[in-house]
């Protein structure tokens, strides 16, 4: 029986590891420290900007097993990854996810991972907040683009905001720090962003705004919904005092402190401000494809190497190293009438 078939209980990692580290540095001198793992492409919502209503999901055989996800994640940790984010699709839809979280949390305990975290739509947090906190997760991101129940139903194509709000409350009750992620949408929420910010900070949550990225075909033209965060920032600066904070994360977000609330607001601006120079991250899809850049069609199949070498990590390491060497200098996202997606895959497959 696979350890992942056993009932949920605190267990040690399936794959025992030594403490050696073998860092990854790309040809531009960027040290790869951050891995985002999409554990499933499936989702219980269908956000308008993310996927079409009739989304075709991957056949199960193409999706990595939890053991395979753990094996690959472990290799990345051995190769210098210090921060690992589980995402999707909706990560909490993946059966057995909590066992994977528990196994990976062993790397928090031995100090090799500084952070293990999760991005979720929040609909299942009432069930999972407590076990996540018990496994050593300290912070999570919850995506929420509106506080209006009808608009939420429309943007997510039938989602129930009550479940998300209850999920956020459950997460906070379990001691998890919650950051709210909001995609800025010209038509659907630009006017509401000040209210969402006031609510999030009032709840004790930091917030990050994200520009829509041209990833994967959806049912509508994203151009109509694109709004530059430079414009949104001006909107917010007419209400609050925004003080720039020094960049400490090396990540794509630029942060300000909202003086009146004392909390942080982040801006992820791939379109209006490119963040590639300091990019320290790579993404692993649930099919074992490694993307070293969110905005380029580069990919390396790790599943084939993994399955061909069940007892030998050497070739898998080589494949990872080869991919890192080829990490592009940067993306060239553009959004404009008739441009179409910059990359064909959806954010839900890549792991946003
Ligand atoms: N389902 C989870 C959630 O919604 O938080 C995790 C996966 S979702 C793909 C991760 C993040 O990507 C969400 O905050 C979502 O709003 C964002 N996202 C999805 N498609 C996007 C796009 N085309 N442009 C910008 N952000 C996008
Ligand atoms: Fe699902 Fe997240 Fe995509 Fe919305 S953004 S459809 S919740 S994967």
Write a structural description.
- It is a single chain.
- By secondary structure, the protein is of the alpha/beta class.
- The chain has a domain at 34-177 and 279-350: Alpha-Beta Barrel (TIM Barrel).
- The protein has eleven helices and twelve strands.
- It has a twelve-stranded mixed sheet.
- Strand 5, helix 7 (193-202) and strand 6 (206-211) form a beta-alpha-beta unit.
- Helix 1 (66-78) runs parallel beside helix 2 (97-104) and helix 4 (125-134) runs parallel beside helix 6 (161-173).
- Bound molecules: S-adenosylmethionine (SAM) and iron/sulfur cluster.
- Residues 43, 45-47, 50-51, 88-90, 121, 143, 348 line the site of iron/sulfur cluster.
